[in-house]
């Protein structure tokens, strides 16, 4: 089980190395100016739309683009929380308005949350925690709106330029695992391990093995006892010159080994068991080493830029963007095998889900509409991150998001809810006559239905929208953006359409005005 969660764990450990800044700059030429943007409004006050960002480059980029669209196209102020969440549960509690307290855990004092949206949450294994948070309020707090469009992927990668070179010079298709069979001499396209500066490698002796028992499965699958050492009762990879684990097909002649790098962080070498299995089972001549750090700053990040080698990577991500990394195609992911620690198939992709505060329905239904329409493809995200300058500064990522929006208008335009396709809680409103209307006209926009009315969904030739209707006599509505009217309480009435509040039956009896709860009590008392 541990090994099956190691995928998400790697991603989780990478969380939080980027902090988001709000630049206050304008990106799009026809942006709604800041002075004309509105805030969200509840009974307790006004506030910007709060955005929670998990800190990985893909989420920082997609959140920056979302924030630009909400501010400049939808016209609502956005606040991006600079805190760096530790995990998805943290996001649940943040959206619920809770604070983490070192001594007493999560403190949820019933405060209204100022965080409303997270664009890429990893939900698997987190359902129980979500249910716990939703149980804190009748009707729930968080809604999972479905996928943001792309999934996260991980695996062995090779650069686009090496793929081109091997195809031209050897007719080898390096994007495909079969091309790495030793019979086809794939190592000719790569650096030799003797050419790699070993001072950039983390020696094998320092590799922490996340789940040593998984190496039992390596032995079972391959019978390759020569590839293993025994230490403290468990197996370890047996290393060549302190730095390289050699796969069986190049162990006798290391000039035939393809150098491959994975990252070593928090003391662990990532996916060593998986890479060893794939190399041995598919007869890939490979020498596996570890580079320090999985994020920026370590040798892991720099080695694939320096040498022609394979590298373990994940995405969409900014780290190796300049190499145009291509994920090597292995057999289609077999989850049942992965649960048994058999890793010869590809690792499953991880869906990213959008979380939204339930009250967004009332506060900003057009934002909810935008969230439901978002459909980022992994290629879009990579393309966006590819616009970044040479650094990983959040302001550069904001610029990358802005450049992507400027050059991909057709894609995001389809995500913007039509100005007069209203959502539940809203109604069509004419800017020309300053009144709510029952059909779309040139100047029609959407506005929250005022007290005394409710929002009804309707369809016309253009599609679905909503209109505000007055509450019927006998019903009333005191709130904005309601979708129903409430029946009057016993003893109260609303004699007119569009009532916002209640009247009591008042009868003059012996020159005293009396309030009665119902007509029958009136009859009884008189
Ligand atoms: C944590 O909670 C305790 C009481 O539950 C409180 O006294 C303390 O100030 C809180 N600490 C922080 C950092 O909020
Ligand atoms: C190897 O790398 C180290 C540290 O990065 C550097 O000091 C050294 O000069 C390099 N050696 C060679 C031969 O390039
Ligand atoms: C090792 O492999 C290289 C490249 O395939 C080859 O040129 C060399 O002759 C081999 N050496 C031995 C000892 O087999």
UniProtKB/TrEMBL annotation:
What species does this protein belong to? Symbiodinium pilosum
State what protein this is by name: Tyrosine-protein kinase ephrin type A/B receptor-like domain-containing protein
Name the domain of life this protein comes from. Answer: Eukaryota
Give the range the annotation lists for the signal sequence: 1-24
Keywords carried by this UniProt record: Signal
């Amino acid at each position: 089980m541990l090994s099956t969660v190691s995928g998400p764990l790697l991603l989780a450990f990478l969380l939080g190395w980027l902090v988001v800044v709000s630049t206050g700059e304008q990106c799009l030429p026809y942006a709604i100016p800041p002075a004309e943007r509105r805030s969200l409004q509840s009974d307790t006050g006004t506030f910007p739309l709060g955005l929670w960002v998990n800190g990985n480059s893909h989420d920082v980029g997609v959140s920056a683009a979302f924030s630009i669209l909400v501010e400049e196209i939808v016209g609502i102020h956005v606040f991006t929380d600079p805190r760096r969440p530790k995990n998805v549960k943290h996001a649940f509690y943040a959206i619920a308005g809770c604070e983490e307290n070192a001594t007493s855990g999560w403190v949820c004092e019933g405060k209204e949350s100022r965080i409303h949206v997270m664009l890429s949450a990893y939900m698997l294994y987190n359902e129980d925690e979500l249910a716990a948070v939703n149980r804190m309020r009748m009707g729930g707090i968080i809604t999972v709106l479905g996928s943001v469009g792309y999934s996260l992927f991980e695996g062995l990668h090779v650069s686009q330029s090496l793929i081109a070179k091997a195809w031209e010079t050897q007719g080898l298709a390096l994007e495909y695992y079969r091309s790495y069979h030793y019979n086809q001499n794939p190592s000719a396209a790569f650096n030799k391990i003797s050419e790699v500066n070993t001072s950039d490698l983390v020696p094998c002796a320092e590799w922490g093995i996340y789940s040593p028992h998984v190496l039992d499965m390596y032995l079972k699958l391959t019978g390759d006892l020569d590839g293993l050492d025994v230490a403290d009762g468990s197996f370890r990879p047996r290393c060549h010159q302190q730095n390289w684990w050699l796969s069986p097909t190049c162990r006798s002649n290391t000039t035939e080994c393809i150098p491959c790098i994975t990252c070593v962080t928090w003391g662990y070498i990532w996916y060593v068991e998986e890479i060893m299995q794939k190399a041995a089972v598919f007869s890939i001549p490979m020498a596996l080493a570890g580079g320090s750090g999985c994020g920026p700053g370590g040798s892991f990040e720099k080695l694939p830029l320096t040498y022609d080698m394979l590298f373990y990577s994940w995405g969409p991500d900014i780290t190796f963007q300049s190499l145009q990394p291509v994920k090597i195609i292995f057999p289609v992911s077999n989850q049942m095998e992965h649960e048994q620690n058999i890793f010869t198939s590809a690792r499953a992709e991880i869906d990213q889900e959008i979380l939204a505060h339930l009250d967004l329905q009332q506060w900003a239904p057009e934002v909810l509409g935008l969230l439901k329409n978002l459909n980022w493809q992994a290629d879009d995200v990579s393309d966006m991150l590819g616009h970044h300058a040479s650094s990983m500064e959040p302001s550069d990522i904001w610029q990358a998001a802005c450049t992507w929006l400027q050059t991909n208008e057709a894609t995001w335009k389809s995500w913007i809810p039509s100005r007069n396709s209203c959502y539940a809680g809203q109604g069509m409103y004419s800017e020309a006559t300053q009144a709510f209307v029952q059909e779309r006209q040139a100047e029609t926009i959407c506005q929250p239905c005022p007290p005394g009315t409710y929002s009804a969904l309707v369809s016309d030739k253009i599609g679905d929208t909503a209109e505000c209707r007055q509450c019927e006599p006998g019903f009333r509505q005191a709130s904005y953006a309601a979708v129903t009217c409430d029946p009057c309480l016993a003893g109260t009435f609303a004699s007119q359409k569009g009532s916002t509040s209640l009247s009591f039956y008042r009868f003059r009896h012996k020159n005293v005005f009396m309030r009665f709860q119902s007509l029958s009590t009136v009859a009884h008392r008189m």
